[in-house]
Amino acid sequence: MTTILYSNVNIIDIDKFESYETNLLVEDGVVADIGCNKICDKNINVIDCSNLFMLPGFVDSHGHMTHLGKNQYEVDLRDCKSEFEVVKKIKNFLELNSNLFWINGGGWNQETFETKSLPDNEYLSINFPDIPIILSRIDGHATWCNKKALDMANIQEYTPVPDGGEILKEDGLLTGILVDKAQQLIRNIIPKDNIDDIKNWILKAQEICLSKGLTEVHDAGISSLQFDAYKELINENKLKIRIYAMANQELFENKVSKYKSDLFELRSVKLVADGALGSNGAALIEQYQNLETYGILILDKNKLKTLFSQAFSQDFQVCIHAIGDKANREIIYALREVFENSDYDQFDHRTRIEHAQIIKARDIKEISDLNIITSVQPMHCISDMHMAEERLGERIKDSYLWKTLIDNNILLIGGSDFPVEDSSPLMGIYAAVNRTKFDDTPSGGWQPKELLNLKEALEMYTKNTAYGSFKEKIKGNIEIGHIADFTLIDRNIITLPNVDILKCEISATIVNGEMVYKDF
User: What is the average pLDDT across 236-250?
Assistant: First the structure.
């Protein structure tokens, strides 16, 4: 038996919204006692927490481990403000990696460019005529390619557009932008990832997440190869963060079975109902403002009904990406009809809408009645607020409705969608309670009626995420009998003004009782 005593620690009780100084005893990864006296026993490892503050372990309910790790080895375009800066970044990357014959990058966002319009590939192709360049948009729902890459993939003006995707053209000519399912046309020619690369990327992501205070990540949409990589890491005893994995649609349809180990569980499927708002792919009921498009509905009601039934029959939870109001409504209609025509309404389904960004008022009650969980990413709000206003106009009132959802008895769970946003849960909590950018604009918060209080925000990243992964009986609070997953911070977050939340620093991350990250 492994026994650890965490002494001189201030436990933050989120339910009571108070903190108290105590000692905490962990035996074999489980809280065995709270408030116990210090025990002088050579078999007990005593760790003095130096009066740090202990929270239930932070959980990110929607992240992408492989992508986060892989991004550390590609061209990072998140801070680029123009096509010129993108090209400069790629040239600098090539100077440091002259042996490459293929350039992958990501993180670009045309909303930070002066023009704010999706780029074309003319300047990219002039500067890089002989090496394929493939650049993912920050949300992963669009890819920007130079002419060399398009030619290698044999993508022409007459290439059939895949269902659920778009090949953008201007004056009949390719722009180099592929949206949603059309991205597969270029991915088909990218050298395939191998399992060793994926394992290294997961380990790199693990290192980053643990340093941000995350004890668990809900990995949204893993492939068969990623699943194999996780299993190898488990066997090698290298997985140190808890993972609640969602199979992607392909892995699920290939009849994957549920899987559970000490730190890893696969019992859900990730589906994608539409695209993203920033790349004009979120499926809307009415046209985008100033654009002649309704977005892209990838899974309609009938497809969703089939997938719901398949998942429920195998005791799989369904987690569905839906951003636009059309996609959210299709999910509601599909789930309601599945329940009406079966006995699955008695099934503890815990269906999750991932993102749930734009929802019509009439649909909110149905989400509540169907006991759907909404998995939201508060950082999207402060990143997207101006872009969302441009895309939606007066319909902005239907977006990022966190307080409205809670007031309608809908469970809210929090995440980041990393690497789209930073994986820091403290940033997500800041965004939830302030709804401002880090320079405190707009004053008073964007759509302030949807602000959450700090207790609600903390619950999104702790006890609510536990329920969202069927673990509410064993984690989410710090109490005897619960798994010893904790996040230690350097100050009492519940006494801070909301604007000062980011002054908190992560001091340690504890998973299964083991301190897997320490900075004190």
Answer: 98
